[in-house]
Amino acid sequence: MRDGLEVMWTHGGAAMGLRHNLTIFVLRDPLTLEHVRRLRRATGPVFARFADKRATLIVVEPSAVADVAKEVREAAADQIRSFPTTVAATVIEGTGFRAVAGRAIVAGILLLSQSRSTTKVFDGVDDAARWMAVRVPVPQGVPWISTRRRLSRRWGRCGRCWRGRRDSGAPL
């Protein structure tokens, strides 16, 4: 955590990190109920610490864009409703029909959640980070745009991480 980024958990193609008041959730595989359950458990303490001064960045990599079961969509909507943030940006990476469909699915989840947060869907992390930076207080020295890259690098180096399908369980 030398750079201020805390990897909170990794499991089956998903990871969650925290850097000051920025929560970042990266999906490399399609969203599952287990991902939402882990996200809920980890978000509670973060929400208690930062309340409504939080920002959330969700990054869905092209390999994770897929139709999501109704129960998963409902659980994700409940997660968003239960833990509102100041701003939330969702990035659906990739181009073509699958990426467009993924953005439509996320827009549907956001509508279902009836979120009080300011939300927007993007096709790139840099645009999302710039949009977020003008809407939520950013502590000096917290480079928002590089946070996703740092989480991915740390996640990729971790011997207990995603592609090996070994569950990291508790925070790293």
> What's the number of extended β-strand segments?
6
Report, as a whole number of angstroms, the end-to-end distance. Answer: 10 Å
Low-confidence stretches: 157-172
* Average pLDDT reading: 76
Oligomerization status of the protein chains: single chain
- The SSE order reads EEEHEHEHEHH
The best one-word shape is globular
The structural class is alpha/beta
Based on CA atoms alone, the radius of gyration comes out at 15 Å
The CATH class label is: Alpha Beta
Biggest sheet: strand arrangement = 1-2-3-4-5-6
Helix content: 40-55%
Beta-strand residue percentage:
15-25%
| Count of runs of 4 or more consecutive helical residues | 5
What would your notes on this structure say?
By secondary structure, the protein is an alpha/beta fold. It has one domain: Protein-Tyrosine Phosphatase, Chain A, CATH 3.90.190. 41% of the residues lie in helices and 21% in strands. It has a six-stranded mixed β-sheet with strand order 1-2-3-4-5-6, with helices on both faces. Strand 2 and strand 3 form a beta hairpin. Helix 2 crosses helix 3. The longest helix is centred in the N-terminal third of the chain and has 18 residues. The chain is globular.
Quick recap:
With 172 residues, the chain is an alpha/beta fold. The protein has one domain: Alpha-Beta Complex (Protein-Tyrosine Phosphatase, Chain A), CATH 3.90.190.
